[in-house]
Amino acid sequence: MKVFKFGGASVKTASAVKNVKSILDGFAKEKLFVVVSAMGKTTNAMEAIVSALYDKNFDLFCELVEDRKSFHIEIMDALFEDKKNPIFEEINTLFEDLKLMKKDRLVENYNFQYDQIVSLGEVLSSKIITAYLSTFQDDVCWRDARTFIRTNNDYRKAEVDWEKTKELMDIELNQPNCRVSITQGFVGHTEEGFTTTLGREGSDFSAGIIAYCTNAESVTIWKDVPGMLNADPKWFENTVKLDKISFREAIELAYYGASVIHPKTIKPLQNKNIPLYIKSFLAPAEPGTVIQASTENDALVPSFIFKVNQILLSICPKDFSFVVEENLSDIFKKLALSGAHINVMQNSAVSFSVCIDIDNFGLNRLIDLLKDEYDIKYNDNLELVTIRHYDQKTINRVTKGREILMEQKTRQTVRIVMRNLGEE
Ligand code: ASP
Q1: 418 exposed, middle or buried (CB, 10 Å; 0-12, 13-18, 19+)?
Q2: 16 C-alpha to center of ligand 1: Å?
Q3: Could you tell me the pTM of the whole model?
Q4: 166 lines ligand 1 (CB under 6 A)
């Protein structure tokens, strides 16, 4: 069986859904498990619906629900000639049920409620796509990830119970006459049967979970880019597609911030040696990128990962004591408490420097937590570039017109924190 994943952009309009059908038609003899995301920007829209509900702004809540309903109905109108297709009634009922929520007493647990509502984006898209495909063929079935992906009840960032999921998927796959299964990315369920979500952008990970638990032959993520590029075209000219890279390389690139695949997707696939293809849904015949076990191609092309809005903090104990394990563990605890995401660290005898992602609120909190015991200096609005398989030429290319504030090199990777002098 092959596992496919189609993200929000690949199902954002009726013609995009038709394009998904034509891609699937190219695999007419294969058993497929297709994971779909919510259509277009529906997850963001669902988040706004939850916020309106909790702000008790019911007019806005109703308006946003109506808006999402029209968005889906417009797509269905263009997909289904037969306006009596039961899918219209089914989708209508889902939205009517959602509207009733405002009458219910809101549960205190925001994250719980978020998952019950936001997951509807994937439920809607998987239902519409299944119904559409079913008008052409009878070997398609809708599968509900809320019955076979088992998680803990850490709502909005639920952790998968791999053993149980494998068991439930074995049962699920026994369903006969179903060559093409359509299911939701991003969602799972707790032992008690409540819906959970796996974290934003989690549908890639769902594909990885399903492939792992069913020993699939491969996973293909269909994207609006030709494959995994060696840099984000937003920041770099002359990007190159990586034809073939290892699991290790892919997980490093995803960790450093390459946004093509969700970082959690690689581990289950590496563990079972299941290749991952990244292909363009606009040019499905093109080979794309394959991520697999062999490392021989990794060093052929340097990759660049660029992050902006970085803060470089330097933290020095006020009493001039060495930066050692005791105060480091104190600093780490405070970084975690303030919601900082650490990107690069370096220390000297009496100073610890750390490049972080943090919002203003978190930064003020961090400074408050540290200021009694440490002198703190920081620079903001910095850039962090990571180059895999660097050489001096690539370093010169990215540091042109920049002041380097911190640099860290290993054999494969250089990370440079810098200030863009052109912006001053
Ligand atoms: N729809 C979810 C999101 O936008 C999950 C996904 O598409 O990966 O975050």
Answers
A1: buried
A2: 17
A3: 0.90
A4: no
